[in-house]
Design brief:
- 2 copies of one chain form a homodimer.
- Chain A contains 9 helices and 8 strands.
- The first copy, chain A, is α/β, with parallel strands linked by helices and 224 residues long.
- The first copy, chain A, has a single domain, classed as P-loop containing nucleotide triphosphate hydrolases (Rossmann fold), CATH 3.40.50.300.
- In chain A, strands 4-3-5-2-6-7-8 form a 7-stranded parallel beta sheet, with helices on both faces.
- In chain A, helix 2 packs across helix 9.
- The longest helix of chain A is centred in the first third of the chain and has 23 residues.
- Chains A and B meet through strand 1, helix 1, helix 3, strand 4 and helix 4 of A and strand 1, helix 1, helix 3, strand 4 and helix 4 of B.
């Protein structure tokens, strides 16, 4: 007589607990009028330099702090802090994602209510970060041209959970067979409401358009 | 003027929280007189077949339940249940370790107080599981001969946190350059108090000696 084997889905339990923490965090940020952005991408797609360019473009209008996450270094936080931007480094120690309670520790450390916007630079990974609600009001991701135009096919969840896609390193387009139209069609097929901006954090191209939209979005949030 | 960057060690915070949960779990198991064993190893070193051989060897003396953990299948739990052993499957969904609250869910599901011994078959991995206290009273690991005698050098933490090492698949010794003496010296150098048993879950060799020691250990725990 063999018992049926009961299956317990650990990750689903953990994610349900996390969603509650994330929802509370979102309400707290709304009360304090601080706009929280969760920025995700592969390693090396230009998250840190995009953050620096965006903050530079808006520094007369909005105040920013940055929560950097990395498995085992504080290089990115130091790069951001060197530009005079308030930064804290979360060392995840092997975890490939951030959850809402980890983000909450970082927010307390930067004293978030002093800032209009806090940007989370999530762990460089297109899988795990997409599965955990960080408590952010906006999910944004970067896809860089050298990564290739097939990424929406390979990582559909990441493209589905984001409100904004920044296509970075467009200065590489002329040396690449990256099919911009195909990418946009693939992404909009997964997520028809996503906003897509083409940028180069290196040359600055397109940063003004993205930054101007971000400014309007934060203004609407603060007035709401 | 650049602020110093504060570093927050996420994993240390999480592990501190986990140690508390683990300690409470250990006390609860002691009150109920159920002996909890955390069995760890690489994938394919023979955890499931060692569990089955051990339970078979002791079935007249002790009652057993098994908590199986796997990233994405319930094959192992079904293999154990097919032998009439009470089993539950924890599907970790990408997590490479078990922590004490995950184990606690499994223990509730098997109704642990009905059993003398519950064995946790941890996720097949020599890194992450060593870092998380599961609440077990005994940590055991398997190193199988085909994995090679260099493993204590590569994964010292795992060998350091275990109370028992089972060297499995000794039926392969004659076809292998596995240096048993060197392994034992390396392991005892890391962890002088560890017990080492040579077994073959396949042929049954050595299972009686290990099982007999386990029986005495559980008896001492129940009387304490």
């Amino acid at each position: 007589m063999v018992d049926e084997v009961k299956l317990i889905e650990i990750k689903e339990d953990i994610q349900a607990d996390n969603r509650l923490v994330a929802e509370n965090l979102r309400q707290e940020m709304s009360r304090q009028k601080t706009f929280l952005i969760n920025l995700m991408s592969s390693p090396g797609s230009g998250k840190t330099s995009t953050i620096i360019s965006t903050v530079e473009a808006l520094k007369g209008d909005l105040s920013f702090a940055v929560i950097e996450a990395d498995i085992d270094s504080k290089l990115d936080a130091e790069k951001v802090a060197a530009r005079g931007i308030k930064a804290v480094q979360l060392k995840t120690g092997g975890f490939c994602h951030l959850d809402a309670s980890m983000v909450s520790k970082g927010l307390q450390e930067v004293d978030f209510a002093r800032f209009d916007v806090v940007i989370i630079e999530n762990v460089g990974n297109l899988v795990c970060p997409a599965e955990f609600d960080t408590g952010a009001i906006m999910n944004a991701m970067i896809l860089s041209v050298p990564e290739g135009d097939d990424k929406p096919l390979k990582y559909p969840l990441m493209f589905s959970v984001c409100d904004v896609l920044l296509i970075n390193k467009i200065d590489y387009l002329e040396f690449s067979d990256f099919d911009m139209l195909a990418v946009k069609q693939r992404v909009l097929g997964l997520n028809p409401r996503i906003r897509i901006y083409e940028i180069s954090a290196k040359t600055g191209e397109g940063i003004d358009v993205w930054a101007s939209w971000l400014k309007q979005t934060v203004d609407r949030f603060v007035r709401s």
